[in-house]
Amino acid sequence: MQTALRAFEMHFPIRYLFYLYLMYRFTFFTAFLLLLFTSCKQYTDYVKSDVTYYVDDDRPQNYLGKSEEAVFKVPIEVELIKRENNTGTLGLQVSGFGAFDVYWDGVFVGSNGQMAKFGQPEIPGTETTYYQIPEKLSNLGKHIVTVVGTQTEFREAGRGIDVKLESFLRLHRAPLIVMSFMNLMAGAFLIAAIYYFFLYINSTRKEATVLLFGIICLLFFCLLIIEYVKFYVDIPYNQFYTRLQIVGALTFALSMLVPWYFMLQFEFEKKRLFLSLLFISLIVIYICYYEHYDITAIYFSYAMCLVSLIIATNAAIRKIKGGLIVVVGLLISIVVNRYIFYDFGLFIAFTIIVLSMLYLHTIRAKAIEEAHNASLLLSSRLQLELIKKNIQPHFLRNTLTSLIDWVEESPQQGVVFIRALADEFDIMNSIAEDTLIPIKEEIELCRKHLEVMSFRKEVCYDWEEKNIDENEEIPPAIIHTIVENGITHSLPPKEGCIHFCLSFTKEKYHKEYSLLTIAKNRNRKKDGSNGTGFKYIKTRLNESYGNNWQFDSHEAEEGWVTTIKIFTKK
Amino acid sequence: MKILIIEDEARIAKRIERMTRDFFDKDVQILLSDSVENGLHTIDQNAIDLLLLDLNLNGEDGFDVLQNVVARSFQTIIISAYTDKAITAFNYGVLDFVGKPFDENRLSQAFKRFTSPEKQPNGDLQFLAVKKGKTIKLVPIKEIRYIKGAGIYTELYLSDGRIELHDKSLESLEKLLPPTFERIHKSYILCWNEADKLVVEAGGRYNMLLKNGELLPVGRSKYKEIKHKLI
After folding, report:
1. Mind listing the pLDDT tens digit for each residue in A467-480?
2. Which CATH architecture has domain B2-115?
3. Which 478-507 residues of chain A touch chain B by CB within 8 A?
4. Does residue A523 register a pLDDT over 70?
């Protein structure tokens, strides 16, 4: 015989929560939170029940007959020792497979499903059922619970029949309490999932982490719902394992996705290696503990925690923001998981992990906001740089000096010079605020600049275009910058002109501008590819085309070639 | 007289050339250069007296050139659009800084500085550039105790006892140095802070006793002026 304490020794979280609720009715929530962070070993000291009883501790085994249709009959002795006052009607909980009728001291108290009868197939009952015991029969002393029924499926499972006595009211109320908390959590995750899906759909960026986080929240919501669906849906016992399989599959998926999410979020390097290692170990766990549903889920979560911890520690070492928070979160969830039995601890652990993911997400959102601000700043800086091209002292003062000379020496030419200068200023002014301008305007700007420069340098500059498509657009002043470089780096010819030729080609996947400067090059001391002019061009290309461009500038037989390739499709 | 103009803008170079010719009349030979490389080459090939230098030459920083040329014997006048660099240029020891755009008057003023024997202190000189092998070393003005003429060179006597050779003549240096330096003899320029007292020797020779006990000769023609200044 076993004492009634057996009820408390079982780490059954629902009971546990229920008892906790009884003890700390008013400060329940605080206690619940505290529990997340403390060991819960001592809880048996606090737990009280209103019914004390003995039950035959030899689980009825092998009570099934040889034939499938055979009716089984299992008598279970219980001895009611003590009942608290005012606890209401006595309740009986029976856990077992099959379709059966339950008798209390030979009196029929209820049935679960419908047992097979002469050609009528069995209507399977559910796994856990509750029965009310008539008050006149619930006096102290020995009683016999008799379960009579059939079990046509899962006969090989060898599950016994469990009975438990408790006040009828409490038997029904306990799941409600658990459910209220679990549904609260599930609702939060459902909302989060929906929110992140919307966020993903409406964002132009289409970040994988957002989608992944949404999926994780949704899966977690499903996990919670499926886990506790047993309390409000009567699952026929022959579908009992289906629920566990779904729970297993969801845990499997979550165990893959959570580390994956951390890898993306922390830009972990060996993604594929670790993901495949994780996948293999999950499969191995699945095979090794096949049909041990709870243990499988626990080991899944261990694997997930371990890999996540490695990633988060790695991130913390690399001093990535949020890395340390996730490490702490994971450690807490491991502690929780260690001290609280699976179906509860796991959810709390998951909640902590998802919360730390949520936190990561806010960090990410902040980073994106900052990047956005930086890009605004950059575009205004580029505007400024463009305007500065014409008012920087080197340009302005040299131009003015030449201008004075022209006005002093040949006023008529001076006027032409002033006109060209004014035109260049006009164009610059009109394009200053745009990120893309029609190619026509860019060419006009280059022509005016060459006119101004020919007055200053007294060199003849010649401009030619090939195959220009007037509908095309280009970031402002980038060809202008290449022309400026061409002027600076070309030796003035003894006779004739320095020749600039802009050509355009359009292919299926890219378009290309190429500016050929035909002149003798000056010796360049420094490598020209990092000058401020080139930086300006590259920043402008980045601003408008992201990474889909190529810029190249090199010496050619005739002079210098600069090409800008813009990819239209990746 | 040889004058080199380093200027990359043809029109401006012509303008400077014209104005220079107008100022110096016929006794001037003008060389033109449109890049750093050509300019340095011309300086090596010709013994020039004056350099007119632009600070930005086809995108190359003229300060590289400046550091190279201020150690030479000739004087340098900067003609540049970067007027904000004037102070730095003076620190390196240029004779004048003419900002662009400029007119004939401003350029003539700079040329007068070059031609007049008188000291026209600009007070901004911080260093004297000294050639050491192939590199240029900047000697802080504060460290110079006195300068002794030695033929076409000068010797800088420094407070730590070292002596550095400088390519500019005493006359050229006198124009550049701040007012704390005084020409006390045809071969000596002294920093006033080092002077202790005048000593008259038998035979009417005048010497300046320095704070560290050294004696420097004082020119007969300078004596009165110096005596007046000391009092």
Report:
1. 999 889 999 999 99
2. 3-Layer(aba) Sandwich (3.40)
3. 488-489, 492
4. yes
